């Protein structure tokens, strides 16, 4: 089964509106003949500006997070309705910075996943172990649990709008990358979880991105692995010159 490659840029808390729009303009021009699936996830304040640039292009507009409630008294949060109003098509949920810095647990992340899917968004659900968990031999168990709990209550039909991103926490923003073999082993394990929950066909179809210090120099080797279907890119997504070679690989 051939799955599409899906390459996403997570711009985190970088860029003003004009800087974000400029990067989006460069990416739409340079990726217009790209043959993979693409997404950029600017900060909330830049969504409208970037959305206006990528509209009608082959680049999806993504958000980096959203609230677990539809609307109401939630100071400082951003709702799925507000994201949809800006033309957002997908949302990254369970990023390790949300899990570990902002203490989001599997239950909260699952609530967000269900809400995003209910409103028709695509979801990139991030899973990944800490260095201490890897060293204790728990990497697979952690990723299994995060995948299972994150997807609790997701129907087989809605799973078609879910991408999993395996991002070992120790590889994010550190310059350390999992070896293609180690990453592929976790991807295979996550695919196995999907097979247990949804059957073999769903497991064969689900796209699993790798994230953690992906750059042009290591992207092709990672994505050559059987179970690695794309990349979620942080640092290298902030400049077209470093993101485009990853996005145009192959
Ligand atoms: C990320 O933030 O999802 C990420 C993988 O970051 P980086 O590529 O900088 O490691």
Largest sheet: 8 strands, parallel, barrel
Helix vs. strand class: alpha/beta
Considering the protein shown, what is the CATH homologous superfamily? Aldolase class I
CATH classification, class level: Alpha Beta
User: What's the total number of strands?
Assistant: 8
Name of the CATH architecture: Alpha-Beta Barrel
Strand order of the largest sheet: 1-2-3-4-5-6-7-8
Radius of gyration: 17 Å
Please bin the fraction of helical residues.
40-55%
SSE run: EHEHEHEHHEHHHEHHEHEH
Which stretches are poorly predicted, pLDDT < 50 over at least 5 residues?
none
On the 0-100 scale, what is the average pLDDT?
A: 97
Query: How is the CATH topology named?
Result: TIM Barrel
């Amino acid at each position: 089964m051939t799955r599409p490659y899906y390459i996403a840029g997570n711009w985190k808390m970088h860029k003003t509106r004009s800087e974000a729009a400029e990067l989006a303009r460069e990416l739409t021009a340079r990726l217009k003949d790209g043959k993979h699936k693409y997404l950029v996830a600017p900060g909330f304040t830049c969504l409208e500006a970037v959305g206006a640039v990528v509209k009608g292009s082959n680049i999806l507009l993504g958000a980096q997070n959203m609230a677990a409630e539809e609307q109401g008294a939630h100071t400082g949060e951003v709702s799925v309705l507000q994201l949809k109003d800006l033309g957002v098509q997908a949302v990254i949920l369970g990023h390790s910075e949300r899990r570990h810095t902002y203490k989001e647990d599997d239950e909260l992340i699952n609530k967000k996943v269900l809400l995003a899917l209910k409103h028709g968004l695509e979801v990139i659900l991030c899973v990944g172990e800490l260095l201490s968990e890897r060293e204790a031999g728990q990497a697979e168990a952690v990723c299994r649990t995060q995948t299972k709990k994150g997807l609790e209550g997701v129907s087989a039909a809605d799973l078609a709008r879910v991408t999993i991103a395996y991002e070992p926490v120790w590889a994010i923003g550190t310059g350390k990358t999992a070896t293609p073999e180690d990453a592929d082993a976790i991807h295979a394990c996550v695919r196995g979880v999907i097979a247990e929950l949804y059957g073999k066909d769903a497991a064969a179809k689900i796209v699993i991105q790798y994230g953690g210090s992906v750059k042009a120099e290591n992207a092709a080797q990672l994505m050559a692995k059987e179970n690695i279907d794309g990349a979620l890119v942080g640092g290298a997504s902030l400049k077209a010159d470093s993101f485009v070679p990853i996005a145009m690989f192959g």
